[in-house]
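Incident log, structure service

09:12 report received: a user says their structure output differs between two submissions of the same chain.
09:20 pulled the input from the user's history:
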Amino acid sequence: MHSQDSLLDMAKELGMKAIATTEHGMHRGYIGKKLYCDEVGVKLLIGVEVYLTESLEPKVRDNYHTIMIAKNQAGLQELHKLIRMSTDEEHFYYDNRLSFDEFLGVSDNIITTSACLASPLNRLSDDHPYYMKLAGKYTYLEVQPHLHPDQATFNKRLFELSKKLNKPLIAGTDTHSSTQYKAECRQILNEAKGKSYPDDGFDLTFKTYDQLVDLFDKQGALPEEVYLEAIENTNQLADSVDDIQLDKTIKYPILYGSREEDSRKFLETIERKFKEKLEQGIIPSEQKQAFRTAIDEEVRVFQKLHMDGFMLSMSELISWCKENDIAIGTARGSVGGSRVAYVTDIIDLNPEQWHTVFSRFANEDREEIGDIDIDCIESDRPRIFRHIIDRFGADKVARVASYGTIKDKGVIDDVGRALARRWEAKHTPNYNPKSKTFSKNNPYSLAVCARIKKEYDEDPERTKKRYPELFYFFDGLIGTKVSQSVHPAGMVISPISLSENYGTFLKDGEWCLLLDMEEVHDGCGLAKYDFLILKTVQVIRDTCRMLNVSYPKTYQINWNDEAVWEDMRRSQTSIFQFESKFAADSFKKFKTDSIEDMSLVTACIRETLNNPAIFSRITF
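09:34 re-ran on a clean worker, output below:
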């Protein structure tokens, strides 16, 4: 099974008790699938279709396929370790790989099967020195029902091996798509990207029990009692796998050996910095009691939520940035309501002055992990990430996976490109499928697709009806994951080993979780740290450097300087969230002359961006 919730829905509807996910190369997104399986009541078998190579050196792109499925929690941790290793520089060659010898060393906590036609048992000769070693290592030999002569021949070969080695057969389907329509969408997308695979033309859609039996019967490679037993063995495989449970408990990082020591250190930091800010006049004396009352209440909440270590980590991190001349934004989001955050230098916004509310950030009934976003400058971000790795240790820190999906106009581009190639193959003699240019009269040329996108902007429904061949694939492709990268802003810091407990892989020189932001938040309880790029911070920093002055603190600023407000009404250049013409015109129209006015205008803009006419009726 690959990454479609529709497959899980079909499995549930048919009364299936279990389903296996075996993505190529890595078990990406396994927690998201597990969450959905738990929701619909289907047991998830977490696995990978790994690539094997005869040897790591010399590097040869042989890429034999093999299935590995975690039998239990220990098996899942072993799978994490193997996949992490397969992505390092020694192993990676076009794809992440394991050697034959490394595969032979896999423990019994991982169930192994011989996979598809790309299996070493199909592609190697019987007399190859590794052939019988590999055959003997597999827990199961996997027959598949595809109506192709090569598959029938391989099934017969596997049947003979099973008798020779006393190895049970299982029946696999190598499902890539939930329905025939989805399979057509997969095919058109591959054509758009100029890709082809050995299984092109195979029916890799979801199969019911009756369909599976019917296909094996039509294939004619195995006796009926053999393929029926193989199907039953598949059920026994599923039964032998533990229903691995997710640990969703909240896990804040540990800085000083224990949560208790972090809590003590945090209290010490609060009191020291509170005293300093009072002595320096950063917190006015008339606000002292209000701060004292708020700090006591916030500390009580943080301790109850076990957030004190998290807040300490943020305090130390932001303080390090400022000590190292790294400009950080004033505050972003609900943390702006925390007096403790202000006292400990996490934010540079005085909640007492601006009347922001702590309970929006944290309250004692909160059941999800805390989250603070940080604004920084793009060129500084790698340095911040490097410091986090050095501070907490490489095994407890990782970047977060991110996936690119096809948007509506991307679907038009991709499907148009594939249809254009199909048209050229049919109408142009000696057409080169790798060519990136099309005939002028091609009905899906780049110029035509550009026009279709423009028409789609003006009237989507009418455009869909006008170009039915292209938009036939639209619903099946919109939102499809087509690329993987590292989330530019996100980093996770954990009190436990991320590689051992959640799985990591090497991407562009950085260790990255096999999970995306949503999985980190919903399925792991891990603390993520988002460092967001805000150009306004860079503009302020660069201006200060030109003037040879320090980056300003908010307590040093006269927020009621009329000359400044007059200049801002004249030009909104570099004012955060007022860059657009609509926002800038609104700023001037309502004669904004205070932070409170600015907040009101910002709120109105957010509510009326989709209907600017409403804003014209608002008066101040």
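09:41 both user submissions now match this output. Likely a transient worker issue. Closing.
09:42 reviewer note: The chain has a mean pLDDT of 93. The first strand starts at residue 18 and ends at 24.
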